[in-house]
Amino acid sequence: MTRSEKETFRIFDAVDLYPNLQNLTQMKPVVVNPSITLEQLFRELADADDDDHRREIRDQALAKLHRRLRRMPQDARRRYEAEAGEAPDALVDRLKNSPLSELSAWVKAHPGLGRILDWDTEGQGRLLPISHHPDELVEISRRYGGGVKPEDFLDGFTAFIRGNVNTIVALTMVVQRPRDLSRSQLRALKLELDGMGYSETALRTAWQDARNEDIAASIVGFIRQAAIGDPLVPYGERVQAAMRRILSSRQWTDPQRRWLRRIGEQLEREIVVDREALDQEPFRADGGFTRLNKVFGGTLENVLSDIGEEIWKKAS
To answer: On the chain, which terminus has fewer CB atoms closer than 10 Å, C or N?
Structure first.
């Protein structure tokens, strides 16, 4: 047997012993078009009808997503969580591990995610004027939406809330029945307000500039203040005061008190904790709503409503 024949034999023998070797040698690196956006990729993934195409789009999205997440600002992270119901970092695991058909359906059900992830983190596309004249500070100001002054921005927000409180269901719930507000309703409302420029961050900044008060109020607090004059109170203080009243309202068992404290901690982070929220982390690992409902003797939904009532009880 010649040397060439021996080498050929060894190659074929290796392929027989390790069937994946041939596939590995044929793998190509994922090439991502730098100009394509995650919004475009997610739109294509939602519309793709075969797994080969979905896999190709998924791999491109993963490669692009890793870079975006490292520089994703907090405001964009909050918007993403409001839309997806989970942290942006969870998307990496979802893309890697979800069946492609389920992934396509999930992306289709959350059409705004790509646009949020494409948030401009590096200031690209913004005009940077260059002047050779000496620098001179003339004025410090902010623009809020279409207004020049923070007062204009807050007045516009108030006018929008009062003009739509009876036409947008989620707004009606926030103002009239906050105890019944669901997580999905709040998520949709925040997205709508964000799209109009009325994000929680913008409202807090405008309020601070207009009133010289830095109040960490939630978007629900701002809506209720605009609609019915409810005083703005830091949201964390609202939750803590409500949980103290709930804990002292009746005789709870030790396990119930522990769960109430955990629910209170989650409320400070998420504003609404309902059945949907309890079936996700950090509660899902402990059995989610079904197990917690047993701890509370089948009355957990009523308990959650009572907590919501206490949080948004109008101060006397």
So the answer is: C
Q: What pLDDT sits at residue 239?
A: 93
Q: What is the 3-state secondary structure (H, E, C) of the chain?
A: CCHHHHHHHHHHHHHHHCCHHHHHHHCCCCCCCCCCCHHHHHHHHHHCCCHHHHHHHHHHHHHHHHHHHHCCCHHHHHHHHHHHCCCCCHHHHHHHHCCHHHHHHHHHHCCCHHHHHCCCCCCCCCCCCCCCCCCCCCCCCCCECCECCHHHHHHHHHHHHHHHCCCCHHHHHHHHCHHHCCHHHHHHHHHHHHHCCCCHHHHHHHHHHHHCCCCCCCHHHHHHHHHHCCCCCCHHHHHHHHHHHHHCCCCCCHHHHHHHHHHHHHHHHHCCCCHHHHCCCCCHHHCHHHHHHHHCCCCHHHHHHHHHHHHCCCCC
List the structure tokens of 176.
């009239």
Segments forming the whole domain that contains residue 246: 235-311
> Is the entire prediction scored with pTM above 0.85?
no
Q: Are residues 254 and 194 in the same domain?
A: no
Kindly report, residue by residue over 138-148, the tens digit of the pLDDT. 444 454 544 45
Domain count, the chain: 3
Pick the most confident of 3-17, 20-34, 240-254.
240-254
Phi, psi (rounded to 5 degrees) for 144: -120, 110
Name the nearest CA neighbour of 186 among 223, 139, 241, 148.
223
Establish if 2 belongs to a structural domain: no
Domain end among 92, 117, 142: 117
What is the number of other CB atoms lying within 10 angstroms of the CB of residue 192? 14
Report the alpha-carbon distance of residue 57 to residue 30 in Å, rounded. Answer: 10
